[in-house]
Write a structure and sequence with these properties.
The structure holds two protein chains of two kinds. Chain A contains 14 helices and 17 strands. By secondary structure, chain A is an alpha/beta fold. Among the domains of chain A are: about 160 residues, P-loop containing nucleotide triphosphate hydrolases (Rossmann fold), CATH 3.40.50.300; about 60 residues, no CATH class; about 80 residues, no CATH class. In chain A, helix 4 crosses helix 5, helix 4 runs parallel beside helix 7 and helix 5 packs across helix 7. Chain A is elongated. About 5% of the residues of chain A have low confidence. Chain B is α/β, with parallel strands linked by helices. In chain B, strand 7, helix 6 and strand 8 form a beta-alpha-beta unit. The longest helix of chain B has 18 residues. Classes of the chains: A alpha/beta, B alpha/beta. The interface between A and B is large, with 54 and 60 residues.
Chain lengths: ~450, ~350
């Protein structure tokens, strides 16, 4: 069984067709309570934080990112399963953001969602027939029980569950993982939607079954003229399936554009890192040069200032947003690499890290050996495992310790590089108008 | 992931760290016994990394648990698992507990379920170390912990934090540090990166790779991801329906797979170069009543008449490469005349 990737569907011609969906400056923030009784003020997880893009009719647009990137929240916000905080979502020219659930109702049959975990998305108490037919009842799309049954049978056949009659009375637990995902797809498509958000639809499946479900999704897209927003962490699947891809990191796109161009010539270090990290099923290439970022995606409650990727970026330099906590982290990271004597000596100089006063633009170490620490910071901080030292503008010895100050680091705006939007200072320092900056962004040094 | 220049572990003069003969792992079901692992031979040399691959339900996790004799109550084990010439099958549970940790370590998929949330990370180490080596002082144990954690990239300033204060990737690093602190000869890692993102996965695989190259630890890596095997293993064993159907050096198996199942698995892998989708028709068999003859025959695109009658055995199909398929002479058990 084989299937090849179809060329872009004829109706996806951007010249004649406007976008089916236009997302403008979308924000979805979740307020967080801190402590037992205190409300967390304006503390919020900015899961989606100013995302703009459009999806053309008939295309597959991929949202790609690690866990915590905000891809699932973005997909759900677009379907209004989560209420966005601000921005607009124009679906066929109509803004969904201000619509009440009641006003959304008639639109719901056009907008479908395929979940990752078929076990969680099927009601175990409903038979396959009841489950798949449920949306028909909700939307009043069948005038009789018999008509609903016919539609369900036709859809089950369409997704390759044959003979369909044999599946009608089965319960989800009676069918295999691959079949279950087909049931989920059948239920999503029974109302004949135009726009389908597919959130990791094959992640839970074995490789051999995965290909079959992807094949089915492509067939259905062609035959039913569907437009997909395909959410995944798997770049290989995204490359195969998607016409265009947006790479998300902590609620923002770092770059987005045509799939092949983005993979062949990534312009953001994060995209490059993701591509480098994918294990290749080819032992002859295992020694290729890889630029792996440090650490993991940080806490979304307090994302890094400046470029959100800067603490992990292998290519980061002075204007990327270096701040106080980066210096602390760099010291900790250095201490995993040096011998124990060096660690003890440097810990003696710096003092307990918990005692340092850390803000965005400076760190004050209440060190007893201030002069020595200052000398170390001035002359040896470039041995730290990140580029944090490049942003240090001043090391001052005072009566109560040493103060280290950092230069400005603006959050980058999207700029056009290689014909697509990219948010990275390596292509020239830019300032995102509503961004989270370190210091005065307008004073940032120019790019390399 | 570098250093293909390291001496090939396969040419090492030392004997294998792990030697498995005729291993069977079975469970009781209401319909009769199910042999999830059904007669496996496998050797791992010091510093060697062997990948175990196959679809879900092919028996790779049962094999991994069989290797460390960590099976649910009621499970049956037959055959022999020798760890540096000491038999593990049939050993008392006390002695097994001692060997797990000291000589053989396990790394699982979900680290949080293995760490006690109420215990500082350092306490996990002190307890583990002192359970095995009562003569080690608390201070020495903390010192060992700090070194093992630093090796995994966990800062010495954080050894007294609690597990929940670490991210998923860091917890997996802590688990690996805990697994290696007693310097075992063999690590069995069952899908150690499946719950992690691709970048962290790559970091963890780097660490495992370093361990076997620098410390000469043998590694059995169980995964469904063929890319991971190609990147990190010396040899790969392909499992189907409880048996190894092909085994050999990764460079041979990935470039010239001999068994139709291996060919199907490789073809269905989606990589950055994929332009066409391939699938293996059908599903793995029910192991309570496996098919007679070759167990892959019902799904095999190259099936022949006698495949459903003759049960193939592993036969040499290339340099250090063996496959259990009747397409190749010798697989029917008859002597091969050169």
């Amino acid at each position: 069984m084989t299937g090849s990737r179809p060329a872009s569907a004829p109706w996806s011609d951007a010249g004649s067709n406007g976008p089916l969906l236009e997302v403008r400056d979308l924000h979805t923030h979740f307020p967080v309570r801190t402590g037992l009784f205190r409300r967390g003020g304006d503390l919020a997880v900015r899961a989606v934080d100013g995302v703009s893009f459009e999806v053309r009719a008939g295309e597959v647009f991929g949202l790609v990112g690690e866990s915590g990137s905000g891809k699932t929240t973005l997909g759900r916000s677009i379907l209004k399963l989560v209420q966005p905080t601000s921005g607009s979502i124009l679906y066929r020219g109509r803004d969904l953001v201000p619509l009440s659930e009641r006003d959304m109702r008639p639109l719901r049959r056009e907008l479908a969602l395929i979940f990752q975990d078929p076990n969680a998305s099927l009601n175990p108490a409903m038979t396959v027939g009841q489950g798949v037919g449920h949306p028909l009842r909700i939307h009043g799309l069948a005038s009789s029980r018999a008509e609903a049954r016919d539609q369900v049978v036709a859809m089950l056949q369409r997704v390759g569950l044959e003979p369909a009659e044999a599946f009608l009375d089965k319960y989800p637990e009676d069918v295999s993982g691959g079949q279950k995902q087909r049931v989920v797809i059948a239920r999503a498509l029974i109302t004949h939607p135009r726009f389908v958000v597919a959130d990791e639809p094959v992640a839970a499946l074995d490789m051999s079954v995965r290909a079959r479900v992807l094949e089915l999704m492509l067939e259905l897209q062609r035959d039913l003229e569907l437009t997909y927003l395909f959410i995944t962490h798997d770049l290989a699947t995204a490359r195969f399936l998607c016409d265009r891809i947006g790479i998300l990191y902590l609620g923002n796109f770092v770059e987005w554009g045509e799939t092949d161009r983005l993979f062949d010539d990534p312009q953001h270090p994060y995209t490059r890192a993701l591509l480098d990290a994918i294990p290749l099923p080819d032992p002859s290439r295992r020694d290729r040069d890889k630029q792996l970022p440090r650490g993991e995606i940080p806490d979304a409650l307090a994302p890094p200032l400046g470029c959100r990727f800067h603490p992990r970026c292998p290519a980061a330099f002075a204007p990327c947003g270096w701040e106080g906590r980066d210096l602390i982290e760099a010291l900790e990271s250095r201490w995993t690499e040096v011998d124990e004597d060096t660690f003890e000596r440097e810990l003696g100089l710096v003092g307990q890290l918990g005692d340092a006063e850390v803000t965005a633009t400076e760190v004050r170490f209440p060190s007893a050996s201030g002069v020595e620490l200052a000398r170390w910071l001035r002359h040896e901080a470039d041995q730290l495992p990140s580029a944090v030292a490049t942003a240090i503008t001043d090391v001052e010895v005072g009566a109560h310790g040493v103060t280290v100050r950092f230069g400005p680091g603006p959050e980058p705006a999207l700029q056009v590089v290689a014909g697509r939007p990219v948010a990275c200072h390596l292509h020239g320092v830019t300032v995102r108008p509503d961004g989270d900056h370190v210091g005065d962004p307008t004073a940032a040094p120019r790019g390399p | 992931m570098s250093a293909a220049a390291a001496p090939s572990p396969r040419t090492s003069s030392a004997g294998p760290v792990l030697s498995v003969r005729g291993l069977k792992v079975g469970y009781r079901t209401t319909r009769g016994p199910l042999w999830a692992v059904d007669g496996i031979d496998l050797e791992v040399a010091p510093g060697e990394s062997v990948g175990l691959v196959g679809e879900s339900g092919c028996g790779k996790s049962s094999l991994g648990r069989g290797l460390v004799q960590l099976l649910p109550p009621g499970a049956g084990v037959r055959g022999s698992v020798r760890l540096a010439d000491e038999e593990l099958v049939g050993t008392s549970s006390g002695s097994l507990r001692r060997r797990r940790g000291e000589d053989i370590a396990l790394v699982f998929q979900e680290p949080m379920t293995r760490l006690d949330p109420l215990m500082k990370v350092s306490t996990h180490f002190v307890q583990t170390i002192r359970a095995h080596r009562p003569d080690v002082s608390k201070d020495e144990a903390r010192h060992l912990a700090r070194a093992a954690l630093a090796q995994m990239g966990i800062p010495p300033t954080r050894v007294d934090d609690y597990p929940h204060e670490f991210s998923g990737g860091m917890r997996q690093r802590i688990m690996i540090a805990l697994a290696i602190v007693l310097q075992p000869q063999l690590i069995v890692a069952d899908e150690p990166t499946t719950a992690l993102d691709v970048i962290v996965e790559s970091q963890i695989l780097d660490i495992l790779d370093r361990l076997r190259r620098d410390e000469r630890v043998g590694l059995v890596l169980i995964t469904h991801n063929l890319g991971i095997v190609a990147e990190t293993c010396d040899r790969v064993a392909v499992m189907y329906a409880g048996r190894i159907v092909e085994i050999g050096p990764v460079e041979h198996i990935f470039s010239d797979p001999k068994h139709p199942y291996t060919q199907g698995l490789l073809a269905s892998t989606i990589s950055l170069e994929t332009t066409e989708l391939h699938t293996i028709d059908g599903y793995p068999p029910d192991l309570v009543s496996p098919p007679t003859g070759c167990r892959f025959a019902p799904r095999c695109p190259a099936v022949m008449d006698h495949c459903t009658r003759v049960d193939p055995t592993l036969t040499t199909v290339g340099p250090l490469q063996e496959a259990a398929c009747l397409l190749y002479p010798g697989a029917d058990g008859a002597a091969v005349t050169p």
